[in-house]
Amino acid sequence: MKKNAERKLAKVVAAMAASLAILAGCSENGGARVTVKNPPIREETGKIELGQIVRLEDAYGFAWLSDTEIIASKKPKWMEEPLYVHSLVKEKDPDRALGVQDALTVNPSPGGGMLFVSNQMKASFVYADGLKKIPLQASSGNETSLNGNVRGAWLGDRAYLFAEVDGLAVAGLDGHVASVMKLKDGQDVIKVEAVPDPKDPNRFTGYFIDRDSSVYKLRIVIKESRFPKAEGKPELIRTRAADFSVSPDGSRLAVAEETGDHANTLELVGTGATEKPTRLTEGRLIRQISWSPDGSKLAYSMFNLERGGSGLYVMDAKTGHTTLVSLYPNLQSILVWSPDGDRLMMSQEHPEMNLTTERTKLMTEIYRFK
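and the corresponding structure tokens:
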């Protein structure tokens, strides 16, 4: 009897300690309420372990300015709210205005000195200190060739590959734009990534997926001429793909293949033509696939109501061990890694709220790994 009483008391104390840990993380900073939570699941034997989850309420994170700073907005995207920089370590420092508003995508250059910012009608290169902006020459009056909903990809620190309404284009740092590929009528690009050629600093490979669920790759070269140019035509490499992401070294693709009605299979496949895919997991929907900058981790969101297991996952790329880091299956917003790969950011507009009113709730969670 005494031992049973001691066990019950230990459980009560543990529950109270967990509650106090959550409450202790709440603070006010820069107008956004910050909560530090314990992870929902922590596997002691895994290669990937969560150290902390930081929640920023009334904030939508777009990108990382550094390993400890994020670029965010305090209102839904359509409200054209100015962007600001928020520090995750200097909590008493006020948020810093970036001098940019009306953004649908924000993508820092690999060196961190410049941002590519786009919305529905226009895009610009913005210096990270906010002191200079170079508009892209992609619009004429009320018409634009820009597909501003799609986040593009940097070609080193030298140019930017982005989606147009009918294909792909490259922007030089002076704002001039050149088309590199046209799609057939009725098609558009829904995701773009790019990796450098490890043997030639002037060459890159762009990857994209279209509305027909087809993944292509396109060789791009930056010569002495003003604009980068495509080498040859796009090469079809996968069909029936719901989403994809290429590893930073360009050696592997993670692909969510549509394997049936309301069924996706996540696979790893080498970018060489002879390698067989490795099946990782299955779910009803698998989206937002994202490699960490060093290629050591792979993040993805999965919705799997029938079998359970919905949530946000991070996999160790060497061992294949996978850790559930959030029970919320975010399927709409991209997963963004910090430059050092130690933190992963997920932002969302709460789906239960009306997204056309000012009462829309925003939330950003940042997962720090040990």
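(Above: one complete record from the training split.) Helices lie at 2-24.
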